[in-house]
Design a protein that fits this description.
Layout lengths: L3 E8 L3 H11 L1 E2 L6 E9 L4 H8 L3 E11 L9 E10 L2 E10 L21 E2 L2 E2 L4 E14 L6 E13 L15 E8 L17 E2 L4 H9 L2
Antiparallel strand pairs: 1-11, 1-12, 2-9, 3-4, 3-9, 4-5, 5-6, 7-8, 9-10, 10-11
Amino acid sequence: MNDFETKYVAKNHFANNAYQWMKLRFAEDPKFKEAVISSIYFDTPSMFHMHEKFESDHIKSKFRIRWYEDMKTGEPSDVCFFEFKHKVGENRFKKRIKNKNIFSDLDLDSPEFINCLDELRLYNSTILENIFPVFQLSYTRSRFVIPGTEIRLCIDRDIHIRKINKNIMKKDFKPMNLSHCVFELKGETAVLPESLERIENFGFHKNSFSKYEQCYRELIE
């Protein structure tokens, strides 16, 4: 069975109303609590993977380190995940490696990042170009499920940049939230179920969305 991932985008100031509506209507995901997610995105010195996103929706790749933070204490998880995602048209490839989280407090030019994702750079018997941390972004993710189905829902809001690697970017960032939030439908269908149609009343519309790309476009000076 196919597992679809469908995104809907709205202005960030609509996020709380949509979140409160979903909280009343759907069950919170029993496996994954609401959390702050932090991701460090990696790219080549020429920003090859960013330019992939600029130039086409057909081919996209991303490398990142991701971890989760407690909503109340802000404490990062003990583990993190090294991730590589590659998309060509409708074909998707994902590789994820669990690792001890030693990265949450590091500056992005730390030697600890050198070659840390090398295992992910081997793809189809080809070693992809060397990559480095570019910036770290964070956001709040709330997860829900539609009872009686395998459909999972999440809303990502207050997306912002926390750190930047000026050795790669040679720029600064705006200390503010991204202007948009994202609602995502994951499961057996890409069609919005009737129980979710009201989400469009909160300004959400179906669209592709890359947090990495949008933060670069809007928050990098």
